[in-house]
């Protein structure tokens, strides 16, 4: 007979309070519960003799909150405040979480709820490597070497029991198009088209922030419901009772820090292209925007602005980018900002590489600087400062910040589970096993702290591809990676952005029209439009993608295979696509007061700029699961058109321009027609090529302005009132740039609408003229 080892008992044999924290002891391990506030608790479990006390960079709220109470009976222990109660089954060590009224929020599995498995981590010593060229840049691949031990860690697994009627959101960005994560397996690691943020949000108003920096798996299927972390010293997570999903995001920000406010220009239009090849081309492009009176605030230089053959070198190629200070000044004179792509991987032999290598500040694989080192971060910024920032560069595009993209070396894509293992294999050669997801965080610190150390007059803007816990502090705009052009990709991108925003970081964008338009050999280069802009089917897709982009936190076009300027879609025989792009662009600029105030609320009130309908209507089963509608600010519901109406891959369609839209409870006005609808129903609305259906909630005040071609030229603010009940709105105004807002240098104007009096007024007694939309 086989011998069955007896598992260690999980029964709680002792509990004690120390410095405000509750410790629970069992043969299987030690539990620790630290109250962080009345509604947030940190929960840890270790199989070792003591907790690690490791300092982790994502969470900034430290120290135990005094004021929780302890109650013990024969069967359970309760640790609680007036807003959150955690009960522990003394027999099994499993937890249940309740709100202040006693409503059950979440239960753990009734037995064996937490499991830790110790293992030894290894790395390859004396590596043999080769450099390969991919569509994602030059990559170093480890081909051989001797394995050396790097430490002992635990795989951790927390088993949970979700309610049948709850939806789950967050965990970063998922290219599969997941919205509600119930029934899904989510691999939480960094990749070209993935963003890992270990924040899970429930429609029941609670959240779990797993405080790991290793890859993670969320699972909710027939194999169980659990959160698994790849490598940690102990299990460590935070439970947030936010009461609402919005409250959970606010709790996440209290734990991990305020979201920085981007400069006002960052909410205008960004024109990007793979790639502009000279300053002359860039300046002429800006001039054409001005000639056509199309809005533009930022022009972007993609990769290869460095001297030929010097991949990642932080200096300009003098042949194509001469006199950088003079030419960037010309861009500024035209009313635009200049963003530059910079990379973390200077190739061997470049001046930047040599400087890092001499000081031992490259990663062991010699393919990226060691962003985990404060000395390396300082050196990286000094290189940026002396060769780029000094010339007036306004913003940074920190590309390939994962910086491991194992899947980009393949012709046939691996299945998700195998791709996860590929990432662990390659990332563990570069990073400590328990920090494999953290490189993007530290790289963002490099740029933010570097520029903040130079000036407080210019806000940091960092467009980057991956993020982690707390990265909202560092002025990062995340984009969704190198996507391919199809209607299916476009639909999936909407949910991808919403789950990213649900994870607590407010600024997200994508490549309008997708990065890859044509079809090539590798799995990722699979666009459906080999004729690109000559194909009216692609022009239609691009317009719909662009319209959606105009209702995102950041409005940005980018890609390869074809030009992305609006006039690339101009056809004298069919101007409707070009005209629709111009209309969407100008409409964005009229809404800048609303958008900038929404961004300010993300800083001041810890709100989200975009969010799933399930955040706003968590009791509505339909709203909880909708993937292609969302809230933009507090008042607008955006309904992107996600199907072709005119052309579809070589054939002309019948031009049926109706789409079905779900209206949650309450009253709604169509922004384009002002028609009023009652909520709680699906409605059919017209969506011709120049319209994206947007609905405004009854009882909303929308500040807007006349179109000007850049944000700095914004005209007078006027108001639209979508009447039906008394309401209020807070308008935010500041200098538009600089960090004065951190010390209160801004104006908040509270504006109210009296339905009975028909008067729009401010808190200081001013009466405003307004356009009143009523029913």
From TrEMBL:
Keywords for the protein's UniProt record, in alphabetical order: Glycosidase, Hydrolase
Lipid metabolism keyword on record: no
KW Hydrolase (keyword) present: yes
InterPro entries in UniProt: DUF5110 (IPR033403), Gal_mutarotase_sf_dom (IPR011013), GH (IPR017853), Glyco_hydro_31_C (IPR048395), Glyco_hydro_31_N_dom (IPR025887), Glyco_hydro_31_TIM (IPR000322), Glyco_hydro_b (IPR013780), Glycosyl_Hydrolase_31 (IPR051816)
Pfam families for this protein: DUF5110 (PF17137), Gal_mutarotas_2 (PF13802), Glyco_hydro_31_2nd (PF01055), Glyco_hydro_31_3rd (PF21365)
Molecular-function GO terms, alphabetical: carbohydrate binding; hydrolase activity, hydrolyzing O-glycosyl compounds
Boundaries of every DUF5110 domain copy: 717-758
Annotated Gene3D superfamilies: Glycosidases, glycosyl hydrolase (family 31), Golgi alpha-mannosidase II
GO BP terms in the entry: carbohydrate metabolic process
Ranges where the Glycosyl hydrolase family 31 C-terminal domain occurs: 608-702
UniProt domain Glycoside hydrolase family 31 N-terminal: residue ranges: 37-218
Sequence ranges assigned to domain Glycoside hydrolase family 31 TIM barrel in this UniProt record: 260-598
Family: Belongs to the glycosyl hydrolase 31 family.
Official protein name in the record: DUF5110 domain-containing protein
Upper lineage: Bacteria, Bacillati, Bacillota, Clostridia, Eubacteriales
């Amino acid at each position: 007979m086989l011998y069955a080892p007896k598992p260690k008992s999980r029964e709680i044999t002792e509990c004690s309070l120390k410095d405000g924290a509750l410790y629970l002891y069992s043969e299987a391990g030690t539990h620790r519960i630290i109250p962080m506030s009345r509604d947030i608790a940190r929960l840890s479990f270790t199989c070792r003799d003591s907790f690690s006390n490791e300092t982790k960079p994502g969470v900034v709220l430290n120290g135990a909150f005094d004021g929780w109470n302890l109650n013990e009976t024969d069967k359970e222990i309760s640790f609680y405040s007036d807003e959150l109660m955690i009960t522990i089954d003394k027999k099994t060590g499993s937890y249940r979480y309740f709100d202040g009224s006693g409503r059950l929020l979440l239960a753990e599995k009734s037995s064996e709820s937490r499991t830790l498995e110790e293992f030894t981590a290894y790395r390859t010593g004396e590596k043999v490597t080769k450099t390969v060229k991919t569509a994602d840049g030059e990559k170093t691949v480890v081909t051989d070497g001797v394995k050396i031990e790097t430490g002992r860690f635990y795989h951790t697994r927390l088993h949970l029991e979700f309610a049948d009627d709850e939806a789950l959101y967050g965990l970063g960005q998922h290219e599969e198009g997941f919205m509600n994560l119930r029934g899904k397996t989510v691999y939480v690691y960094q990749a070209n088209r993935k963003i890992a943020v270990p924040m899970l949000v429930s429609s029941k108003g609670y959240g779990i922030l797993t405080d790991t920096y290793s890859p993670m798996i969320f699972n909710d299927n027939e194999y169980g419901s659990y959160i698994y972390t790849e490598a940690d010293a102990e299990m460590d997570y935070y439970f947030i009772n936010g009461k609402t999903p919005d409250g959970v995001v606010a709790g996440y920000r209290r734990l991990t820090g305020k979201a920085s406010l981007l400069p006002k220009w960052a909410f205008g239009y960004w024109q990007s292209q793979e790639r502009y090849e000279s300053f002359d081309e860039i300046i002429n492009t800006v001039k054409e925007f001005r000639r056509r009176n199309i809005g533009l605030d930022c022009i972007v230089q993609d990769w290869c602005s460095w001297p030929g053959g010097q991949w990642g070198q932080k200096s300009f190629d003098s042949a194509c980018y001469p006199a950088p200070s003079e030419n960037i000044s010309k861009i500024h004179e035209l009313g635009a900002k200049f963003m530059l792509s910079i990379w973390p991987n200077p190739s061997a032999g470049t001046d930047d590489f040599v400087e890092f290598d001499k000081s031992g500040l490259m990663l062991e694989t010699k393919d990226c600087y060691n962003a985990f080192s404060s000395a390396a971060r300082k050196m990286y910024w000094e290189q940026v400062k002396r060769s780029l920032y000094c010339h007036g560069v306004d913003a940074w595009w920190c590309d390939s910040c994962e910086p491991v993209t194992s899947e980009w070396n393949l012709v046939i894509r691996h299945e998700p589970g195998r791709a996860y293992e590929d990432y662990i294999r390659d990332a563990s050669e570069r990073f400590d096993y328990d920090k494999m997801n953290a490189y993007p965080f530290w790289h963002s610190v490099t740029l933010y702290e570097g520029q903040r150390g130079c000036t407080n007059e210019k806000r940091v803007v960092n467009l980057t591809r991956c993020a982690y816990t707390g990265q909202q502090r560092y002025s990062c705009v995340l984009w969704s990676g190198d996507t391919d052009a199809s209607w299916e990709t476009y639909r999936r991108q909407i949910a991808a952005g919403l789950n990213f925003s649900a994870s607590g970081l407010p600024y997200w964008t994508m490549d309008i029209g997708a990065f890859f338009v044509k079809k090539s050999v590798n799995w990722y280069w699979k666009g459906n439009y080999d004729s690109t802009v000559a194909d009216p089917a692609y022009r239609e897709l691009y317009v719909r993608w662009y319209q959606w982009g105009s209702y995102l936190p950041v409005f940005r076009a980018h890609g390869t295979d074809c030009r992305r300027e609006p006039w690339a879609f101009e056809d004298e025989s069919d101007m409707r696509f070009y005209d629709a792009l111009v209309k969407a662009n100008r409409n964005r600029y009229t809404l800048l007061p609303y958008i900038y105030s929404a961004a300010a609320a993300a800083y001041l009130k810890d709100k989200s700029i975009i969010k799933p309908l399930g955040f706003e209507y968590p009791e509505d089963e339909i709203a909880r699961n909708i993937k292609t509608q969302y809230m933009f600010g507090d008042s607008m519901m955006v309904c992107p058109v996600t199907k072709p109406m005119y052309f579809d891959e070589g054939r002309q369609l019948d031009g049926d321009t109706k789409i079905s839209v779900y209206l949650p409870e309450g009253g709604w006005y169509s922004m384009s027609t002002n028609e009023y609808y009652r909520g709680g129903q699906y409605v059919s609305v017209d969506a011709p090529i120049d319209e994206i259906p947007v609905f405004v909630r009854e009882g909303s005040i929308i500040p807007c302005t006349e179109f000007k071609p850049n944000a700095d030229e914004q005209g007078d603010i006027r108001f639209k009132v979508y009447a039906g009940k008394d309401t209020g709105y807070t308008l935010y105004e500041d200098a538009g740039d600089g960090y004065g807002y951190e010390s209160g240098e801004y104006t908040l104007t509270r504006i109210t609408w009296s339905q009975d009096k028909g008067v729009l007024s401010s808190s200081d007694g001013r009466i405003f003229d307004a356009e009143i939309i009523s029913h």
